[in-house]
Specification:
The complex is a heterodimer of chains A (370) and B (238).
Chain A (H helix, E strand, L loop, with lengths): L1 H19 L28 H12 L11 H4 L47 H10 L8 H10 L3 H8 L5 H13 L7 H6 L7 H10 L33 E2 L14 H4 L8 E2 L21 H10 L9 H5 L17 H12 L4 H5 L15
Antiparallel strand pairs in A: 1-2
Chain B lengths: L3 H22 L2 E11 L2 E2 L7 E2 L6 E17 L4 E3 L4 E5 L7 E8 L6 E6 L3 H4 L15 E3 L3 E13 L2 E10 L5 E6 L9 E8 L17 E2 L3 H8 L6 E3 L1
Subcellular location (chain A): Periplasm
Keywords (chain A): Heme, Iron, Metal-binding, Oxidoreductase, Periplasm, Signal
GO cellular component, one term (chain A): periplasmic space
Chain lengths: 370, 238
């Protein structure tokens, strides 16, 4: 009698354990350029094949939206380096959002703050926000969980990756897929690996990009590296060092930016310094998509800077001509120099990234329906 | 009965002595706590309160970071070298100071702290990820030039004019090793040593720096030397 009881209890425990134990998963083995440096993956969301597979399907699935018409990929398209080509993104409400869609690449590196104003601290936290936002995907999370449970594929995908279908696991899977979006095979990467050399114009542009001008030693430069790091070309990872005011607006028109999150006056008008990888395919530019071309961006940095209280001192001070009047801000680059910087920016385009099948829409392919 | 009392006392004493010895011998942690100063006062960010040392106007400091590297503890018999010893000091946090913790060191053995201001030429001339070194970080110039050792940015206001201040001080020649005494407490507990980093020293030199004239220092070797010559006096025990 007592033996049977023990057996039943044991069986119960085993069943409970099977149902609740995390599934057996395979960590993703990946390579990234040494020069990218340390990367961050949260301990409670291991980077596994199973989670990436699930995340990829979720990312491309319009089921995630209230009207079943919009997926993450509606605003983050692979061929545009996961942007949408619009000045300001448009979602479920058909109203333009306040912001330009952001490129998604190399998200394991760079600032630990996401969105233009840095208001979330992880990809896991970020993922559920667009799903619920009325202007973006306008979906109720409980409803979404029901829909995922009814689906004929998600229950297995979730079980293999995390166990249960929950909002938290949905967010984790989306985060994992986005971590897999590594862009590291541009012309610039090949140059860094010593495989090719850049053209004279590109090399000239690279040098200008990487230098802060110093007239005292006749060093010419575009000062881009003061904010866009040399290899990742994104903002700096430490604290809020990856946020800056690059002179888009004067005091009167200055927007909140990082201030909306920190409440610190010194952060008013500071925005996330975005990665410049694949920048040639992500027009229009800046947080509100105000510039249609890289030529306009360079014009801005060269002679369109607007003064404000929080404008970066490095921008005010950077000048390729001996400063005569400190109140007029201009880089004073030549036409040739601006063209060279643009040529360098084009070396950041990574065709492999834009066409990599692993990042593409799984609904378009037969192979996924195994 | 009369015999057991002395025996117990002896045992107890032995236990206490053993305990103390053990506590003294066991490795401790040493915290080096750096406080930013401007002269006699703790440094305050984003406040137009500091007098231009060599000219008219007042200035404020908006950003301030300093590399410290290769911390050694030196004693008569041995030297402890902290591994991966690259620390980016910054003070724009709530605490207002920066801690470097050396774990598991036999504090009793050492009487001096030696450390480098800046990044040693080997690390400065290569791409390594060690400690706080980050070639994609704000202190990196680019891989041909190396790191800024000191970053001080702000603004000088003089006669209604606003002048940006940018001091980016680097170069191998500026790397400076300094020594400060390690006051030995009882050696009984983990220890905190507080150090004062007096940034006013950078400008309060024999001939005080006129920030209106030297408002930016980046690559001009003479200007770099002018500021970096204050590095040996930057640190003191508080």
């Amino acid at each position: 009698m007592s033996v049977i009881t023990v057996l039943i209890v044991l069986a119960g425990i085993t069943f409970w354990k099977i149902a609740n134990d995390p599934p057996v998963t395979t960590p993703v083995e990946f390579t990234a350029p040494f020069v990218f440096g340390r990367f961050q993956i949260p301990k409670d969301n291991p980077y596994t094949y199973e989670s990436v597979k699930l995340g990829r399907r979720l990312f491309y699935d319009p089921l995630l939206s209230g009207n079943n018409e919009i997926s993450c990929a509606s605003c983050h398209k692979q061929e545009l380096a996961f942007t949408d080509g619009l000045p300001r993104a448009i979602g479920a409400s058909k109203r333009a959002l306040p912001f330009n869609s952001m490129s998604l690449s190399n998200l394991m590196w760079g600032p630990r703050h996401f969105f233009w104003n840095g208001r979330v601290a992880s990809l896991e936290q970020q993922a559920l926000l667009p799903i619920q936002h009325v202007d973006e995907m306008d979906q109720d999370l409980d409803e979404l969980m029901e829909e995922l449970k009814q689906d004929d594929r998600y229950p297995v995908l979730f079980r293999n990756a995390y166990g249960r279908i929950t909002p938290e696991n949905t967010a984790k899977a989306l985060a994992s897929f986005q971590r897999s979006l590594i862009s590291a095979n541009s012309k610039y990467d090949k140059y860094l690996r010593g495989e090719i050399s850049l053209s004279d114009q590109e090399e000239y542009g690279r040098k200008l990009f990487m230098a802060h001008p110093d007239t005292k030693v006749s060093l010419r430069g575009g000062n881009c590296i003061d904010c866009h790091s040399q290899f990742l070309t994104a903002g700096f990872a430490t604290g809020f060092d990856g946020f800056s005011n690059n002179g888009l607006d004067d005091d009167e028109h200055l927007q909140d930016g990082l201030y909306a999150f920190t409440g610190n006056d010194a952060h008013r008008g500071l925005f996330k310094v975005p990665t410049l990888r694949n920048i040639a395919v992500t027009a229009p530019y800046m947080h509100d998509g105000r510039f249609a071309s890289l030529e306009q961006v360079l014009e801005h940095y060269n002679s369109g800077i607007k003064m404000s209280q929080t404008l970066s001192p490095l921008i005010i001070e950077a000048d390729n001509r001996e400063k005569v009047d400190i109140q007029s801000v201009s880089l004073n680059l030549t036409e040739t120099e601006m063209k060279a910087i643009i040529a360098f920016l084009h070396t950041l385009t990574d065709e492999d990234f834009l066409t990599n099948e692993d990042f593409s829409d799984p609904f378009n392919r037969g192979s996924d329906h195994d | 009965m009369t015999k057991t009392i002395p025996l117990l006392t002896t045992l107890l004493l032995a236990a206490v002595v053993a305990g103390i010895t053990w506590q003294l011998q066991s490795p401790k942690s040493l915290t080096l706590r750096f406080y930013p100063y401007m002269g006699e006062q703790v440094l305050v960010f984003n406040d137009l309160r500091y007098q231009n040392p060599g000219g008219p106007g007042k200035f404020l400091i908006r950003d301030l970071q300093l590399f410290i590297s290769n911390i050694h503890l030196i004693g008569k018999k041995q030297t402890y070298r902290q591994p991966d010893s690259y620390h980016l000091l910054r003070f724009d946090n709530d605490k207002g100071y920066f801690d470097i913790v050396l774990k598991d060191v036999a504090l009793n053995e050492y009487d001096r702290i030696e450390l480098g201001i800046g990044v040693d030429p080997d690390a400065n001339g290569s791409i390594v990820f060690s400690g706080d070194l980050d070639p994609n970080g704000r202190m990196a110039w680019n891989w041909q030039v190396g790191y800024k050792f000191l970053l001080l940015e702000g603004r000088l206001t003089s006669n209604e004019k606003s002048i940006p201040l940018v001091y980016h001080i680097g170069f191998d020649e500026s790397y400076t090793r300094v020594t400060v005494p390690l006051a030995n407490d009882s050696g009984f507990f983990d220890q905190i040593t507080t150090l004062k980093v007096d940034f006013s020293k950078l400008f309060m030199q024999e001939t005080p720096v006129n920030m209106e004239q030297v408002s930016t220092v980046k690559f001009d070797p003479d200007n770099v030397r002018l500021i970096a010559q204050a590095f040996p006096d930057l640190l003191s025990i508080n």
